[in-house]
User: Fold this.
Amino acid sequence: MAALWDTTHARLDLYHQIATGQAKSSFRNAQIAMVAGFLLLILFAVIALWASTTAVAIVAGGLGAVSAALAGYVAKTFIRSQEAAATHLRSYFDQPLELSRYLAAERLVADGDLSQEQRGEILSALVQAMVAGPQPPPAPPQSVVVASVPGQQGV
Assistant:
């Protein structure tokens, strides 16, 4: 059992290192993409301002807008990757809390003055909750937009 415990913790540590590394590299890459897009936007704006002809100014402005949009898209992609890694890290750190809840429930059942039938029902529900895994938090309530009718007050 001790070897299984050590192996499990080694795997969890490796998982933590991988998720942390992915989050760091995604965030760094997003910052690099944002800075590159901003610098390209400034460069093309300066070229457009100093352009000798209108055609050069239009091309430089267009290239600046396209490079900024592309950098924004790339940065957004890296940020989504970083958010996914952060979600995995949260689940990694939620696991001990989840386990402590199950252990506390088990202790309450063991120390409670329950019949075998009651104990069996509670343990069955506990096992089902463990198999189902943690439930995602409920979504925040969405605000309801009520269309107003002319001549009437809104609710």
Q: What stands out?
A: The helical segments are 2-49, 54-111, 116-132. The mean pLDDT is 79.
